């Protein structure tokens, strides 16, 4: 166990480091950036939390004795009336959720298409570019629908883009240097969205509650059986969240181009 006392670690970079159970006392974390970090079970006392921006899966977060999770969820549902539809419970409501996502993504892609092509490869505040976002959603579909549900052990296209923190896995591409055109990525995306549509159209309440056949071979997700419901909920969440990120960044790119 390492111990740092009166140490100056400003600007340090920690990547794939296990800090579980660490004790931080009288520590300056101002300006720190956390990405892909597991903060489950963290306890903070006597902290100054001012001007903080948090995006992620938030449950059972208590601030000054108040569980703010339900408040955040209620406000997000108010801001985005379609958001509640992303928590479907039966086959019919899964089809409704996918209808909504197809409509929203159609509007977002049309908006992106009005920008200069080079801006679609531009990162905003270190986040994925619009093209990279679409490539990641292809990866999500390939992983959770084509691999987990349909049983293809190697479903990936060379343009698939896993999340940055995922360890390299045999057979899973990760080409961050690729610069495909919007049309090329959209052709791939349409194919994968059509696959999801076919799976969801064929859903019944019984098949939704079933488990997939065990996935074979290395890759993501790990080779085992999964609840069909879980696989599709993951896809819906990926589609919903990444569209919000894309819309947020498109607004910045549009303002940048206009200025």
UniProtKB/TrEMBL annotation:
Pfam families: DinB_2 (PF12867), Pentapeptide (PF00805). InterPro entries: 5peptide_repeat, DinB-like, DinB/YfiT-like, Pentapeptide-BTB/POZ_domain. Residues 101-245 form the DinB-like domain. This is Pentapeptide repeat-containing protein. It comes from Micromonospora chersina. The lineage of its organism: Bacteria, Bacillati, Actinomycetota, Actinomycetes, Micromonosporales.
């Amino acid at each position: 166990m390492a111990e740092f006392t009166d140490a100056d670690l400003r600007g340090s970079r920690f990547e794939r480091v296990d800090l579980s159970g660490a004790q931080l006392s009288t520590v300056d974390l101002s300006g720190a950036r956390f990405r892909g970090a597991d903060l489950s079970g963290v306890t903070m006392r006597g902290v100054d939390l001012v001007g903080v921006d948090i995006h992620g899966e938030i449950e059972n977060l208590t601030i000054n004795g108040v569980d703010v999770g339900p408040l955040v969820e209620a406000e997000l549902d108010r801001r985005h009336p379609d958001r509640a539809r992303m928590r479907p419970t039966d086959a019919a409501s899964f089809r409704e959720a996918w209808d909504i996502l197809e409509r929203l993504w159609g509007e977002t892609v049309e908006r992106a298409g009005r920008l200069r092509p080079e801006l679609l490869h531009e990162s905003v505040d270190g986040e994925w570019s619009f093209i990279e976002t679409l490539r990641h959603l292809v990866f999500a579909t390939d992983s959770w629908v084509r691999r987990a549900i349909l049983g293809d052990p190697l479903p990936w296209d060379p343009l698939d883009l896993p999340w940055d923190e995922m360890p390299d896995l045999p057979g899973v591409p990760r080409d961050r240097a690729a610069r495909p055109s919007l049309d090329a990525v959209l052709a791939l995306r349409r194919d994968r969205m059509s696959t999801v549509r076919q799976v969801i159209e064929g859903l019944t309440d019984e098949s939704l509650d079933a488990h997939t056949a065990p996935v074979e071979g290395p890759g993501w997700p790990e080779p085992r059986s999964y609840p069909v419901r879980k696989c599709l909920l993951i896809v819906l969440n990926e589609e919903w969240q990444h569209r919000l990120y894309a819309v947020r960044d498109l607004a910045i790119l549009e303002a940048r181009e206009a200025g």
